[in-house]
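lol ok so funny story. i was supposed to be doing the assay writeup but got distracted and ended up predicting the structure for this chain instead. priorities right. anyway since i did it might as well share w the group, maybe its usefull for someone
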Amino acid sequence: MAGATSSTVRLPAKVAIFCDVTEQARGLGTAPLGSSEDGPLWWGPQDHAVAVETVLAAVDAGAAFIDTAPFYGWGRAERVVAEALARTSHRPPVYTKCGTIRHGDSWLDDSSPTAIRADVLASLDRLGLDRLDVVQVHDPDPTTPIEVTWEALMKLVDDGLIGGAGLSNHDPDLMTRALSVGPVAVVQHQYSLLHRTPEGDGTVAWCHDHSVAFLAWSPLASGFLASGFGINQLHPKDLRRQLPWASTAAGMTQQVTAWADTIAARLGVARQDVAVSWLEDQGALPIIGARSPAEAQLIGQPHIDLTEADLDSLPESAEQS
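and the output, tada:
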């Protein structure tokens, strides 16, 4: 990676409790590894053996944590993680989720205490663990007050079944209400050069103000910010064909990827190195989704320093994403 320079990215002190690091921390995202044609998410065919090797490659690359969820293939991703971790002596912290449950051919959000406990026990069984490092409420449940959910999660902490609780895709008001009941270990939202909503809705500021780690899902915009990505390479039913970056926001996508490619060419790195380093400069911990051992190598690549000129030349369209 000629031209790349490694720098220290400082993280909130609380991250050290759950990631065992205080500097650069990239995690593995397993949503693509749980890809299944019968739902709920379909990224095209995913070979099981390759999926297991991808987790092992991420661990070898220094993954600070593994992020998974029952929703990812209705347990398939968790089982892949379990199979991989059984083959290695090193186990990064495992973060999973709860509260999104199967409902016929679809799903619904249920963060009631009964559903939360059932989710946690099922994840412990699939992952082959006695304790989950962090459990995140996957999405807001409009029928269960967050305070009730958080009391249930704090009870699971007291019982020793989980190390901490986090919130995925919840707004700052809900995060504040949860915090009034007990600690919030991590917050997770979609965040990338092509999706900067957390900057405008107060989520980034909330995490900074409360020293809570911000986990960024889809830091590469589901692949659109990766070198060599092409929509025509995807399976006809691949969910990414329906994303806005392939249609209504295609113009912004072209502008931002051109910006990243210019910097990458100057530094001798890949587009994804630029995208992830930019995100780390915002104080976020990227969840690197990978479907192969080669893609998992991004976890171990060094942070690169973007100049003021680089940042000044970022297309204005990205600021409204």
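The domain at 15-320 is CATH 3.20.20.100 (TIM Barrel). The chain is about 35% helix and 15% strand.
back to the writeup now i swear
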